[in-house]
């Protein structure tokens, strides 16, 4: 084999994301796609968090089929309950002793109706999961990341000038910045996620922890199955310049990029992955 071939072989052996990851909301939809993308990117270990135990088992099995060397930890947890979140992240730290990438996907839909008729209990539930739950997870992720060494000290092939202690990606929504009728709780929760992302990015930049958000547009998941019955192809084409539904893997690919050293100078942003939805 010539030197050129050797060089290419060595480059191919460098994993895009060699570290330890956690995905909340991992049992379905975008979270499931993110977990699969992390396995393909070469993560050495992954913790999967969701309230749906059966869904977690399915995802874990499919991940092991993708990456047999990857350690997988399944954690049933309701992100809205602080004690459960603390126990889950204690288990992650005990199992892996570090955390390099966190993608917070856990969320619930929130078509509660306009504010004057929306049930306060329904509003509270959406905020409890989508915003407060994400905050509860993020604070545990940040605590672990702050205490650990830079990834360049642990994983071969990482450029020291791009080293980090961790990267967090929060799944927000285009509805953080625009609105749909009847969704005050959901819009408020996702706007809060975008604001929390900016705040954490500023607070933890000097700790070499990057925090970003992704704003999915109209994506084909179980959460949007009800909307799909109402939105025909014509409506999607009118709302989305690329004139189609997004796919969960397209959101996952953006998350992998934001976790990677390719995004080493990116923090505090909310990246639309929406087919142009916010451009209209």
From TrEMBL:
<dbReference type="InterPro" id="IPR002347">
    <property type="entry name" value="SDR_fam"/>
</dbReference>
<protein>
    <recommendedName>
        <fullName>3-oxoacyl-[acyl-carrier protein] reductase</fullName>
    </recommendedName>
</protein>
<keyword id="KW-0521">NADP</keyword>
<dbReference type="InterPro" id="IPR036291">
    <property type="entry name" value="NAD(P)-bd_dom_sf"/>
</dbReference>
<dbReference type="GO" id="GO:0016616">
    <property type="term" value="F:oxidoreductase activity, acting on the CH-OH group of donors, NAD or NADP as acceptor"/>
</dbReference>
<dbReference type="Pfam" id="PF13561">
    <property type="entry name" value="adh_short_C2"/>
</dbReference>
<dbReference type="GO" id="GO:0030497">
    <property type="term" value="P:fatty acid elongation"/>
</dbReference>
<comment type="similarity">
    <text>Belongs to the short-chain dehydrogenases/reductases (SDR) family.</text>
</comment>
């Amino acid at each position: 084999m010539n030197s050129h071939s050797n060089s290419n072989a060595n480059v191919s052996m460098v994993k895009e994301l060699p570290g330890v990851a956690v995905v909340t909301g991992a049992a379905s939809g975008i979270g499931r796609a993110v977990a699969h993308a992390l396995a393909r990117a070469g993560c050495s270990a992954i913790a999967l968090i969701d309230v749906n135990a059966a869904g977690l088992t399915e995802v874990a099995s499919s991940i092991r089929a993708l990456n047999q060397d990857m350690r997988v930890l399944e954690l049933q947890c309701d992100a809205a309950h602080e004690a459960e979140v603390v126990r889950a992240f204690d288990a992650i730290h005990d199992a892996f002793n570090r955390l390099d990438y966190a993608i917070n996907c856990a969320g619930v839909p929130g078509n509660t109706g306009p504010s004057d008729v929306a049930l306060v209990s329904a509003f509270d539930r959406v905020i409890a999961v989508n915003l407060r739950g994400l905050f509860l997870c993020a604070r545990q992720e940040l605590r672990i990341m702050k205490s650990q060494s830079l990834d360049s000290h642990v994983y071969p092939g990482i450029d020291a000038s791009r080293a980090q202690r961790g990267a967090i990606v929060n799944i927000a929504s285009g509805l953080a910045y625009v609105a749909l009728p009847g969704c005050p709780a959901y819009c408020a929760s996702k706007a809060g996620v975008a604001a929390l992302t900016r705040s954490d990015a500023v607070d933890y930049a000097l700790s070499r922890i990057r925090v970003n958000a992704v704003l999915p547009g109209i994506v084909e998941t179980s959460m949007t199955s009800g909307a799909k019955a109402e939105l025909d192809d014509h409506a999607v084409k009118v709302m989305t310049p690329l004139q189609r539904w997004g796919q969960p893997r397209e959101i996952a690919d953006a998350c992998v990029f934001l976790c990677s050293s390719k995004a080493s100078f990116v923090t505090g942003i909310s990246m639309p992955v929406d087919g142009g939805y916010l451009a209209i």
